[in-house]
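Q: Structure tokens for this one, please.
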Amino acid sequence: MAVKPARRRRRLPVLIGAVLVVVVGLIAVPAFAHDTSTNTKSSKCQEMPGMDMCGHGVYHGKGGSALKVGTMRVIDGALTGDSPCEKSGPPASVGQVKKDAEGHDHRGPLYQYPVTKAEREQLIQQQAEARAVALKFPTVATAVAAGYKKSTVYVPCIGAHYTNTALAGKFDPNTPSELLYDGDTPDAQVVGLSYLVLHRGGPPEGFAGPNDMWHQHNQHGGLCLNAQAVVVGNESTTPAQCAARGGKKVALNDVWMLHDWVAPGWECGWGVFAGECPELGGRIGGTVFDKPDPASFKRALGIVTTKAASKKHKSSSSGAGN
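A: Here is the predicted structure, written as tokens:
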């Protein structure tokens, strides 16, 4: 039976809420891991929808079209370990570290493709509108008062995320569905925006030009979220680990995300649409200004070092023999 338009409108927020109430950029940003597909160039590389991860030279981008100019290319030599972001710990999500010269994964600055005069003029207007939003919500307190709710603690390189799922039905520079902050206290300051959009069939049209490369968080069953819709584990978190944290794995199949670093004073050295911002260091669960603690970052992401894993294995073996 056909659904009347009015009923469709009533159902849209429910659908968006069910899918996006758990969405963030990043345990994220950047920006971060993406949905895998069976289209592979070799057994060592899996393509991710929305981008060219395996050096094929084609970006299946906006509107699902293949754009040669949209190939994702990470600039070599940028990851020196000196940025506050890198000093704070590993990427917040799987698939963010550049591994070789073919452009696999994307921690670091992305190559910026040329835009036409018309695209440039439109982009200038869009970013002026986006920056006005950042100025409108300078603190966490102003975001909460406007209906945004915390969806992540502060995470180095991508900030603390505050989400308003009611704004995720379409892309509009004036209404980002997420605001990013340098901590999660009421007086924490805005550092950027994130556009989360429910869009079937590929990423939304988004900003003018080819440089806004949208991402997803669907790998390994998606993110781990607790009952308050706060991310408590990234894509690498197993269902068992997620359950132990009081969460549940959630795939976000038609949800696309894009960071926009336009907050004054926090313009991103890796690009305005980069998945991560190298200026954002600090400590997970704290602020951008805290002393970095890579070990706590790894623990929060469920990363076990070889040494720790070996020690755990020996302990388990000893216990099993008693």
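A few notes: The longest strand covers residues 190-198. Residues 1-61, 63-69, 95-105, 308-322 have pLDDT under 50 and may be disordered.
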